[in-house]
């Protein structure tokens, strides 16, 4: 049995409660998920509320499992007040880093859309697809070829414009949800405060020290974020942001790094 501390228990209850409300009573994601800064649906309070929403049971389970495993030990060390501050700082920080990178990428997409709408040509459409919508290239190959063979035909021009506009609207309005930014912050803190603690993981055939696991996981998330695969719907930079803000906050708190466990 896991020995839950009071704040970890309350966070667990809140996350489960919001999941049930969103899934079965009233949809919360349309308003309370974190939206792109360029989306008309963006509201500042979403930097807080997105942390308590999840995209499915598996998403909720994985985050709450991490909270249950690593959270209680940190709460016992810091106390509930400091742990709560840490949870919100890392969660909000994760949202800020994710939003900053998303703003840069979406701004580039917005500029590309604007350029194409001014000059809707087959080559321009091909360039847009190859640079911004690679995941849709194969499924639109016939259209691309037909447009290339009939560059002045109005229906192909209009269809290409419709695709570019709809693609932008979809990208700018993708909601981001989940407590994983805060959970990755907790994981980072655990690795820094208990670097030599050996972890026994289901997907690892042998025990691994926390410092190595955290370092590997952080590098993996950074790599996946840089790869930016269009088929990957995981907010990797939110995970990196949670770890980064955890590191900064622990430095500010001047954690006693001479005591390793």
From TrEMBL:
Q: Does the keyword DNA repair apply?
A: no
Domain Peptidase S54 rhomboid residue range list? 45-103, 163-250
Q: Does the keyword Ubl conjugation apply?
A: no
Q: Which residues cross the membrane?
A: 12-35, 47-71, 83-101, 174-194, 199-219, 234-253
Cite the GO molecular-function annotations of the record: serine-type endopeptidase activity
One GO BP annotation of this record: proteolysis
Name the InterPro entries on file.
Answer: Peptidase_S54_rhomboid_dom, Rhomboid-like_sf, Rhomboid_protease_S54
Q: Superkingdom of the source?
A: Bacteria
Q: Where does the record place it?
A: Membrane
Q: Pfam families this protein is in?
A: Rhomboid (PF01694)
Family listed:
Belongs to the peptidase S54 family.
PANTHER family according to UniProt: PRESENILIN-ASSOCIATED RHOMBOID-LIKE PROTEIN, MITOCHONDRIAL (PTHR43731:SF14), RHOMBOID PROTEASE (PTHR43731)
Protein name listed in UniProt:
Rhomboid family intramembrane serine protease
Source organism (scientific name): Arundinibacter roseus
């Amino acid at each position: 049995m896991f020995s839950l501390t009071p704040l970890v228990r309350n966070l667990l209850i809140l996350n489960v409660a919001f999941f049930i409300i969103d899934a079965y009573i009233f949809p919360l994601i349309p308003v309370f998920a974190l939206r792109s800064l360029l989306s008309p649906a963006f509201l500042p309070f979403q930097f807080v509320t997105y942390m308590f929403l999840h995209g499915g049971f598996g998403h909720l389970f994985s985050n709450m499992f991490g909270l249950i495993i690593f959270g209680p030990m940190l709460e016992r060390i810091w106390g509930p007040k400091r742990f709560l501050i840490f949870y919100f700082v890392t969660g909000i920080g994760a949202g800020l880093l994710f939003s900053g990178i998303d703003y840069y990428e979406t701004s580039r997409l917005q500029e590309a859309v604007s350029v194409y709408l001014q000059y809707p040509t087959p080559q321009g459409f091909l360039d847009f697809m190859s640079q911004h919508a690679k995941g849709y290239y194969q499924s639109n190959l016939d259209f691309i070829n037909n447009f290339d063979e009939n560059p002045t035909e109005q229906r192909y021009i209009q269809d290409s414009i419709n695709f570019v506009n709809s693609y932008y609207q979809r990208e700018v309005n993708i909601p981001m949800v989940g407590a994983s930014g805060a959970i990755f912050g907790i994981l980072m803190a655990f690795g820094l405060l208990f670097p030599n603690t050996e972890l026994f993981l289901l997907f690892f055939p042998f025990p691994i020290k926390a410092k190595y696991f955290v370092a590997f996981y952080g590098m993996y998330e950074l790599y996946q974020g840089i790869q930016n695969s269009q088929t990957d719907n995981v907010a990797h930079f939110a995970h990196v942001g949670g770890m980064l803000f955890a590191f900064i906050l622990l430095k500010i708190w001047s954690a006693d790094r001479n005591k390793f466990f």
